[in-house]
Request: fold
Amino acid sequence: MIKRLGYIVKFLPALISTVVAFASVFSASDARLSEEIAEQIQRISDLKQAYSSGEIAPVDEASFFDGNLEAELEAGIKFNELSFIATHNSYQTVSTDTTKKLYRHLSDLTFGLVKPNKADFESETLTDQLNCGIRSFEIDIEVFDRDGDISFTCMHSPNIEMTTSCYDFALAMKEIAMWSDNNPDHLPITVIIEPKETFLPLEDMKKFNIGYADEFDSVLRKTLGEKLFTPDDMLRD
Reply:
C-alpha cells in the first residue's frame, strides 16, 4: 500500500508538469518553424548565388571512398555493391527547449519508458552533410492540401517536433540538385522518403494517399529532372 502511494505521489506531479509542458510546446514550435522556413528560403538563395559565382569548390569524392574510386568505377562497380554512410531524420534541427522539457517530463511520467534525451539530437543542413560525405538521407514528409493547392513539407511531428532545415520539400530537392550540379562526379545519393501518419495535424494537413503520391512524383521529376534515377532506369529492359 505504501509503495503504491509512493507511485501516486510521484505520478501526479509528473502528470501536471507534462500537461503544462505539452501546452507550452505549441507556441514555441510555431515560432521556431517560422524562423526556419525563412532560413531555408534564404539558404537556397545564398547557395544559388555562391554556386553560380564559383565561390564553392567541388568536394573530393575520392576522399570519402574506402579504396580506389577511379579504379572501381572503371571496373564497373554496381550500385548494390556500394554501402553509404546515411543519416536518419536528416532534416531535423535542434529541438526547442520546451520540446526537450516535454520529453523529460514524459520520461518521469512513464517511469523511464520514454527516454529523457529523445529530443537531444540535430542534423546539419543537407548541403553540409553532403560536403561531409553523407550520400543517403531519410526524410519524413507531410501533405498540405489547401483547396487543391498541394505541397509537401518535412517535419517529424506536427505541433511537437517541427524543427527542420527542409520545411519545403521541393526546395530540399533543389538544394540536393544544386549540390549535384556543383559536384558532377559524386556517387549516387539515396533519399528514403517516409510519409508520416499525422497524430496532431496542422490545418489543411492531409493523410498521404495514391493521389498525393502522383503529385509527389511530379515534384521529384520537376526538381531533379534527369538526375532522378527511377526503378525503370534500374530495370532497363
